[in-house]
Design brief:
alpha+beta, two-stranded antiparallel sheet
């Protein structure tokens, strides 16, 4: 997987679309069109868009907390004080569509789970979703 190009979520609630856009190296607007959703994205929306772009992913979300060891690439489901949020994690860096590129998760974020993305030929978990 090549280097990630950061994408900021345009208006509020497009964090899931922005995470997929970063992985697929497309615009957030294109992902909105693929998802047919310009509102908050759910897990199924994200899976559908990843499938569309041919991005391999784990079949299920893995429960996690802020102390969890993360795979090389995953999309995190986090809880902020007033809403749920999606963040892309890639090789030690958090690409947060709302707060920017960081070495640590946004301090008020509480990790709930993650969806592992197959970044290389080797994937830590199996089986993966395939089209």
């Amino acid at each position: 997987m090549k280097k990630i190009k950061y994408r900021k979520q345009p208006p509020e609630y497009l964090c899931g679309q922005a995470c997929v856009a970063m992985l697929a190296d497309v615009t957030v607007e294109e992902v909105v069109s693929v998802m047919k959703n310009d509102k908050s994205a759910g897990k199924k929306d994200i899976e559908k868009a990843l499938d569309y772009y041919g991005i391999k992913q784990a079949k299920t979300m893995t429960k996690a907390n802020n102390d969890s060891i993360l795979p090389k690439v995953c999309i995190l489901k986090v809880l902020l004080p007033k809403y749920g949020h999606w963040v892309l994690y890639y090789d030690g860096t958090y690409y947060d569509p709302e707060f920017g590129v960081m070495d640590e998760l946004y301090p008020k974020a509480r990790m709930q789970s993650y969806l592992e993305i197959c970044a290389d030929e080797y994937c830590a978990l199996a089986p993966y979703r395939v089209k």
